[in-house]
From TrEMBL, chain A:
Keywords: 2Fe-2S, Iron, Iron-sulfur, Metal-binding, Oxidoreductase. InterPro entries: 2Fe-2S-bd, 2Fe-2S-bd_dom_sf, 2Fe-2S_ferredoxin-like_sf, 2Fe-2S_ferredoxin-type, 2Fe2S_fd_BS, Beta-grasp_dom_sf, Diverse_Oxidoreductases. It holds the Pfam family Fer2_2. It comes from the Bacteria. GO terms for molecular function: 2 iron, 2 sulfur cluster binding; metal ion binding; oxidoreductase activity. This is Carbon-monoxide dehydrogenase small subunit/2-furoyl-CoA dehydrogenase 2Fe-2S iron sulfur subunit. Residues 5-81 form the 2Fe-2S ferredoxin-type domain.
TrEMBL record, chain B:
Residues 21-136 form the Aldehyde oxidase/xanthine dehydrogenase a/b hammerhead domain. It comes from Pontivivens marinum. SMART domains: Ald_Xan_dh_C (SM01008). Keywords: Molybdenum, Oxidoreductase. This is Carbon-monoxide dehydrogenase large subunit.
Amino acid sequence: MSDLQAIRLNVNGVTRAVSVEPSASLADVLRQELRLTALHLGCEHGVCGACNVLLNGRAVRACLTLAVQAEEAEVKTLEGLSAEQIAVTLKECFRKFRALQCGFCTPGILVLAVDLIAANPDPSEEEVRDWLSGNLCRCTGYQPIVGAIIEAAKRLRGAV
Amino acid sequence: MAQGSLIGQSLPRVEDDRLLDGAGCYIDDVALPGMMHMAILRSSDAHGRITALDCSAARLVPGVIDVFTAEDWPQDMPVIPMRLIPLESSVPFLQRPLAQGKVRYVGEPVAVVVARDRRTAEDALEFLELEIEALPPVVTRDQALAATGDALMVPEVGTNISAQYQIGRGDIEDAFARADVTLKKTFQSHRHTAVPLETRGTIAVFDIAAGKLTIHGASKVTFFNRAELAKAFNLRNDQVDLITSDIGGGFGVRGELYPEYYLAAEASRRTGRPVKWIEDRREHFAATNHSRDVDCELEIAALKDGTILGMRGQVRADMGAYIRTNGNVVPAKAGQFLPGPYRVPAFACEVLALVTNKTPVGTYRGPGRIEANFFRERMLDCLADELGMDPAALRMKNLLGAAEMPFDTGDLLPNAQKVVFDSGDYPATFRKLLDECDWDAPAQVHSDGRLHAMGLACFNESSGGGLYENARISVAASGQITVSTGSSSMGQGVETAIRQICADALSMAPERITVALSSTTLLSDGVGSFHSRSTVMAGSAVGQAAAELLDQARGEAGRRLNAAPAELDYSDGVFRVMGQSDRSIRLSDLSAMLSDQGGLDVESRYEQAPLGFSFGAHAAHVAIDPGTGDIEVLDYWVVEDVGRVLNPALVEGQTIGGVVQGLGDALYGELVYDDMGQLLTASFADYLLPTSTEVPDIRAVATGDYPSPHNPYGFKGAGEGGIVAVAAAVGNAIARAIGPAGDAICQTPFHPEKILTLLHAAKKGKQ
């Protein structure tokens, strides 16, 4: 039982004061304290990617990030991305390509794809597959996810 | 909108909106007021006697509110029963929720800690003092057969054989006497499991004052689980509710009646608080059902022209330490499906189930079929080589044709349930695959320096098991229709399928229909989601309930419109008197008028007809690097006749997803134990799953050529055809690619070092 530490987290554009144990993961704090449950915990050792969130715009594993490490950063979860054009377009394409089944990995993959398209607006299939290789999906076989991300990038470039 | 017009359309998924918004509600997203958290002390020894278990220090940890062990259970601990293929000889090997006196596998629950949060509960496990006197661990099938004394799982039984029986058909001695060629080989399908991305979890709320037990996070077989939990806690069925939630993948392993349901319920009963349990990934690998782990000695008899006369052999399944609810399915189906979709006039097989000191086995997508298809299809390629035949031609010669349907398979199951292949023209469907993949038998060294080859595999697959399914449809005064079935969502689109069938049967827009599946509060009874049965069984039940509802509504509408029921037209939720469009009444108005009788609300039970069998074939193109043994699957094709296709996009998604799971199982994931029965692969660092960079382009074709005659829609299951022949097709492709050395490709998984060893050995042999 360690002492709680008071920190301020900037999550989805709102600064929140929370008391956390120094060893608490960002994932646990977001899910349990802030009730932001779009991110999921699939392995808690950084392999599956279901807990991806954006930290200063880059996708990171919330299960491997301590909440206290995120104090100075801008944290975005899928909930906070919902109104943004990249996420809106990605969701349309995920729907069209049947890029989800059980949906458990989906929020982590959407967050990753937002980062990908922001970094590389015109990714090749190989680049998408390379980025996506850090996320596990047990249902779809990845094929429709790759298609959806490429299509979303195209739409966002105005190429469709 | 006419009835039947929605069947065959790729309607969008109902599930997508909430899941894409991150608004899905999985079990760990549920938080109840006053909720406590449970952690489980699990055995770290494979086999031993519990000589001491001191909980006193753990009880003193701040935040811990309860600790209990088997000795604290208020009466005899319940035995977790067999749900499928219950065999008398397996009864002594059933599990109880907590270890009593002995531990039998690494991961077996021994004690429970309940605390104010999960971290406190898990940390407090360290304060439990458990002493175990080691007993000899049994970790292989041969050790299980040889075990005596202390190595026996239950010494009083005198054997580690939990089931042993013969199946077969035809005159096997005669078949082998008449053969021009016989071949004998030993095959093995390795231990692995489904690995859904969401681990298991539950919240139990035992309200003693109200006499009510509620289990959240249920799935798969809610009504069976309710009845058993009711028995275990001396409650009536109506005092127990199982509530379903979103599910992060089922694939057969989730939702069975596991020890943890009992433990959470007991924890809640003792503490009077809601108790949550969420499995962590390491725990998942040791506690959730493993699967496969079957070997087979197989012998085939054939004529020179490739006509198969007979097959005989022995199937031996490593069941792990206990027989779980569906464990016996694995060896039973491995035996039953050995002859596969071929004529095989004579067949004889001994089925053996053996208990060992490993995690218990249960079903994982394609249970027994994966194994049987691998054994048989590899054998057929070896036979083709022996006869100098093209593997496609050999298969074509022996596949069952349309004129042979229905085909009685004989007595291939221990409970003597008669199994008949219902329909199909297997050679015609196989031909479609050969055309699709542009089949080319010879292996070749490609300009990239790698060894390239294609491999084939055929299978057929039963669907729609389970004796019945219930569906309930109710009409609200607002016009909203709610449909529920006993089958639950396992994350693969069942809600979409059920809504589509309901909308079709009521000839109305799908948007007007809400789907609420499988919580026991929604219907009086039901069976569940397994054996590719949800669309077949629950779908048929929905169609039947809709017909009954419309029948009842038509009578009421006639009374209120002063017309004979036969004079009424029905479409889109409205009855109209024929030729008089001003005389009409809506379903919703009828339901409101009948509100004193509960409105329009029909629950219907659809009884099982004989099973429907899909048939399909897979082709794989692999390339092997002769320097490293690295295996790349470059292309993959599946053609499957799934009867009438409800939603082509859903079926395609199932097939492609299944293939990729199968590729991971064939090439990567393996549950490895050491000699002491320690599980060595209990994290994603050690148990590898396929990622986006390892999987090829997959072409999946579902044909609707041969609808099943046994259900009103003609559906056959489509959930397992993608996975069931992957190990077989990839194994055959690898074997062809590496030439004569490929004869030894008899075991999964196919790892590069094994390929390299075979290539080196072949080279040495030549010199």
